[in-house]
Each structure stands twice: as C-alpha cells, then as structure tokens.
Amino acid sequence: MNSSKFYAFVLNPWVVIISLGAGVAFGMLAPALATTLGFVGDIYVDLLKMITLPFMVSAVIFSLQRLFRDGGTASLLGRVALVFLAFSAFVAIAGAATLLILRPGENLPSTTMQTFGQIVGGDLSASDTAMNLRGVDEVKKTASFADLLVSLVPANIFSALANGDTLKTLVFALLFGLAVGHVPTRISDGLTQALETVYHACQTLMRWLSFPLPVVLFCMSAAQLGKTGIEPLRAMGAFVVAFLVVSVLLLVVAAVIIWKRSNGTLGQTLNALRGPFALALATRSSATCMPIMIESLVTRLGFARSRVELLVPLTVSLLRIGPVVYYVCATLFIAQIYGRSLSPVEIGIVLTSSVLAGFASAGMTGLVTVSLIGMTCTYLGLPFEAAFILFLAVDPVCDMLRTLVLVIGNTAAVAVVCPRPLKI
C-alpha cells in the first residue's frame, strides 16, 4: 500500500469510528491498563501543537501580503464580518431551539438525580442541598469589554508564542501581515519565500502525523474511559444526546453549504471533509486542524489559496461556533435542572452572552473552556459552580463534538466568504 492509499485509509470515517469504539471497549474491560496509555495521546497532541503556531503565522502573513497585492481587501473584510455574525447567530439559535424542544434537564429520574448528587457531593433531590447549592455559590466577576481588548494585544510576541497564545499570535500576524503588504516587493521577496517554506514544511509534518491516527485514537479513548468510567456518561446522558443532536444538525448544514459553494458533487465534498473530520476527532484541537482544512479547501475543492490561507486561521481563532452552541445548550440545561423558566428576554441574554463567551474561549481548551459556562450563567443567576463537575465528567465527548462543529462549520464559513471555484 503506497503512502497516498494509506493516508486515505487512516482518515476513513469507518476507521476512525472503529478505533474509537475499540478504545472504549478496552477502557471498560481493563481500566487500569487503559489509563497507562494516556501518554500516547499527550505526545501526539503536543506534536501537533508544535506545528500550529508557526503554520498560522506564516499562512496569515503570507496571505495578507498577497491579498494586498491582488486588491479587494475592504470587500473581503466586510464579507467576513457579515458571515461571522450570521454563523454565530444561527448556531446559537439552533442550540437554544434544540434544548427547548428536547428539554433534557426536565423530569429526570430520581436515580439520575442521585447520581448527580454523588458527583457534586450531595443529593440534588433534597431541598436542603438545592438551597445549599444556591446559597454558597459566589458570583464571579466577569471580564469587561476593555479587559477583553487588552487581552488581545501581545505585549511580547515571543512570550505569546512560548505560551501558545493563539489569539495574541493571530493579532500580531494580522498586524505584521498588513504592514508587510505595504512593503515594496523587491524588499519583501526574501521574507515571502521563507514564509512559504515554513508553510509547506508544516503541511508536510501534519501529513506525516496523520499516519498513526488509528492507534492514537484507540489509546486516547481507552485512557479517558479508564479514568472516568461510564457512570458520568449515564448521568449526563440526556444532555450529551441533546448536544449530539444539535451538533449533527449543524454538521449536516455545514456540509451542504460547502457542497453548494464548491461546485463539486456531494461525494467529492464528503471525501474532502474526511481529513478535517478525522483529525478533529483525534486531537480535539481546532488549531491543529488548520493545515488539513486548507488542504481540503484548496487541493480537493478548488478554492483560491490566497483567500483560504488567510481565512482559515482567522475563522478558527475568532469564529468559535462550537463553543457558542455548547454554552447555549449547557446554560439552558442547568436552568432546566433547577426548574428555572426563562422568558424570551432571558433566552436572548443566553444567546448573546454565549457568543461573547465563545469569542473569549479562543485559545482555550478542556477545563478552561468548560468554566466559561459560568460567564453565561452569571447573567441569569444560575448556580454553575456546583454543576461544573458534571460537565467536566462528560467533556471528552462534548469536546469532540465542539471541535467537529467548529472545524467543519468554519470550513463552511470560509467557503461562503471565498469566491466560488471552477467546476471540479
């Protein structure tokens, strides 16, 4: 089997699903042994993160430079802003509609409430515990808009690179790329060639790292299940199912958008999305999926490279539709658990605060991403701190869905912003 066929094999969705299923089975049968396999996933994700920032910086600066030379910067940025607003509003409304229709947090069995109580350290079915949960929660101070703006500016770009701060690095790359675009060609040609070399080297490394993907998926899923067990998944099953429903809906919509924008067939579109789909499941990191997103849009679907290389890092860092829909669903689920009926105005507050929390989640993963649910709950006075451990217990599953929605959804956003390619 040559490298191209093997590359297609490891990214096949059935291979991904079988690897995950085998890992889950192993984690249930031998949890102690499965936990020891966690280091494989840690090493793999660190290797991917090693590539992400140099790839993003080189792609953004190089693309902005070419964009200024080709013209059309103002119209492109206006279209980007419109797409960002439309996509954010759509996913937030879709998440709210799904939770309000399915209502996974209402009429839960007493056994499920007892499991919740064991996880948070009390019995949620008892009135004194409910009062205690409401009484001891402290309302945390939320960041102001000014604090958010200050946090975007990298005082030291080398420190931002060393800390893996994606958002600050993106701001630097955008500003530097805008400046390079105004430098005469005879001076900037050397930098252009260097950046292009870095860009293609990172793409090559990413392709090499895709080969052990089935083994990595097996080890990561086995280690996670061996660590947490199956009980948290059962207790939060209703929420996970609801979030799965809205995620599948958004993935289908995104795939249709890409199909219609690409001028190709549905089969060609789905084949092009296999790589981003598999890598998003494996790494649960949208930033590490950027090279393969670019490869899919440019090489397989025919979109303009100069636009795609700029828009993919921009959307991954700023258009956080995966976290947005997650925050909407989680906030409404908490409200339903505590029997809080929300008015249309309060639902509007949930949608708006979730979009802001999604933007604030740029560069964050895992526990920190989950903790931002508290930002949306604060506006409604909901006791999130007690429920935090519930969401943390099932976050490995939800994180996969968040990343999938973000990666495939942002691929659709880039397809909307870019001009239609020729027939493929």
UniProtKB/TrEMBL annotation:
Has UniProt tagged this entry with the keyword Mitochondrion?
Answer: no
Q: Which UniProt keywords apply?
A: Cell membrane, Membrane, Transmembrane, Transmembrane helix, Transport
Q: Where in the cell is it found?
A: Cell membrane
The superkingdom of the source organism is: Bacteria
What is the topology of this protein in the membrane according to its UniProt annotation?
A: Multi-pass membrane protein
TM regions (residue ranges):
7-30, 50-68, 80-102, 143-162, 169-185, 205-223, 235-259, 310-335, 347-370, 377-394
Q: Which Gene3D superfamilies match?
A: Sodium:dicarboxylate symporter
Pfam hit, one: SDF
Cite a single GO MF annotation: symporter activity
**GO CC annotations?**
plasma membrane
Q: What is this protein called?
A: Sodium:dicarboxylate symporter
Origin organism is Variovorax paradoxus
List the taxonomic lineage: Bacteria, Pseudomonadati, Pseudomonadota, Betaproteobacteria, Burkholderiales
